[in-house]
Amino acid sequence: MIFGVLTATLALFVWNRWRYDIVAIAALLTAAFLGLVPFGEMFSGFGHPAVITVAAVLVLSRGLLNAGVVDAVARQLTRVGERPWVQVTALTVIVALASGFMNNVGALALLMPVAVWMARQSGRSPSFLLMPLAFGSLLGGMLTMIGTPPNIIIAGYRAEITGAPFAMFDFMPVGLGVTAVGVIFIALIGWRLIPQRERPAATGELFEISAYLTEVRVTEENRYVGHTVFELMRELQGEAEVVVVGLVRGERREPMPAIYEVLRAGDILLVEADPDSLKTLLDVTGMELEARLEEAQEQDAQKGRGEGRDSPMGELALEEAIVTPTSRLVGATASALELRQRYALNVLAVARQGVRLRERLDQVRFRAGDILLVQGGEKELPAALSELGCLPLASRGLRITQPRKVILASSLFALALGAVALGWVPAAPALVGAAVAMVLVGLIGPSEVYRGIEWPVIVLLAALLPVGRALETTGGSQLIADGLFALGEAASPAVMLALLMVVVMLLSNVVNNAAAAVLAAPVGIALARSMEAAPDPFLMAVAVGASCAFLTPIGHQSNTLVMAPGGYEFRDYWRMGLPLSLIVIVTAVPLILWIWPP
């Protein structure tokens, strides 16, 4: 029965129709009702130290980002010059080091705008930088226990079978060797294998917003005088795609007027509309076309595609942002979420896999990886995007760092790492303590604590840990291990480790890497028992394999996030990912056998 539950779960993960945390909860419920997981232990995963540690690391990552710790390093990247291999090396090394100590998606989110800026300054497509950046974040996660959820999970499994978890830097010898070799390959050869996509998404011309901003005047006799913007928009709904993005009334300039603003004669509305919708607007409402501020619009368009912020209204900002897999936008529409009313945010355009969508915006259901052109107040827009779970792209600037905050955040983080490394305090309480300290000193706001945690990942881990335990208690993991052992019965430990690593790598390319680690760790332990060997090398092989999702864009969030801005296709990933995976196996297996002999 456990194999039936796991097969269905993996199939649903691959199908990707439902979010992975929902699938994991369904798997847990099914296992419980089938008697595979005792009802009293169903929710034990929510209190598991591995789950608490992952949540604490995510909060600490938000604190380090808020303090500008990584910004201070990323700022130096703008000085590395324009040679491709130098840019690739610098970005990959920095993101790998950052990912070793913080959430790798957070490190990628910070450096991705820098990579896009560097590519555009060099006149190249961002595609040659973004995939190396994503792969570098995966490699760097192998450096420490907190670098990636699989390492935390594997450390927890070791604690259950030996009484002592892997320490903070036990992953470093193998992880550092694999990361170093991987970075060298990416910097010298790997980036040359990536197709140089010259799509609009890659050249910064995806959103030609200057062709869509127009001014219309409310005439004296117009029937909308005395009516609200909401009434105007409601009448146009279903007939024209029009967004009111500004209002000029005499000397008053109001960016993003309230939807219940009452229109007056002589008002000038700044609207965003394509030519057909603009014609419908004029025909239906009787408003007149005002002289377009072509020069101002052209300047604004240039700003909106790169470093600028201001709109023709003077106080609005245009941002390109990416919808993350955990964003609340996924599966919803702009109208359903009431983005204008609740977040003072306009979605002006949506692009998917490098192509601007031409369907009506109120009918677009957002997907992970979509690029949005959004407009909002200069000061409010960053907070709105953060709350919605969207990452700013090319227009994001590095914040001005405050040395006091950088030192304070770094010190708290280093203190927690030191306490864990020296064995004074277990990882979960030490990292939770550091996270609470960051809240108390003002590095993280109380509400940011909850926004910083990727709850789908937490639910996934908490739900699958009892299922993974059921795989072990029912003898399922031993059965799989016996099959692998029979397949390579006469093989050496090196071959068995390589075989296990390949299986876990393939699994992590189609399901979440944390899920791959949860499901594969019991198999690794059982395989060690079958070979009458120590479990450590097999657990390390699972940890490395689960962190190497280089073949598909769906294996890890980092791969998903660079797909649209890089203009990549599904098949592009294996071009660099396959040789990199082989290099990881060839490097990791000897290192594991040397440092953790069976």
Broad shape: elongated
Radius of gyration over all CA atoms, rounded: 26 Å
Low-confidence segments, given as residue ranges, are 199-204, 292-314
Helix residue percentage: 55-70%
Q: What structural category arises from helix and sheet content?
A: alpha+beta
> So how many helices?
26
The number of strands is 10
Largest sheet: 5 strands, antiparallel
Report the end-to-end length measured between terminal Cα atoms.
Answer: 32 Å
**Percent of residues in β-strands:** 5-15%
Mean pLDDT: 82
Strand order of the largest sheet: 3-2-4-1-5
Question: Could you please describe the fold and organization of this structure?
Answer:
The chain has a 5-stranded antiparallel β-sheet, with helices on one face. A 5-stranded antiparallel β-sheet has the order 8-7-9-6-10, sandwiched between helices. With 598 residues, the chain is an alpha+beta fold. Helix 3 crosses helix 19 (446-452) and helix 7 runs antiparallel to helix 25 (557-566). The two termini are 32 Å apart. It is elongated and about 90 Å long. The chain is built from 26 helices and 10 strands.
Task: Give a brief outline of the structure.
By secondary structure, the protein is α+β, with helices and mostly antiparallel strands. The chain contains 26 helices and 10 strands.
Keywords:
elongated; 10 strands; 26 helices; 598 residues; five-stranded antiparallel beta sheet; 9% strand
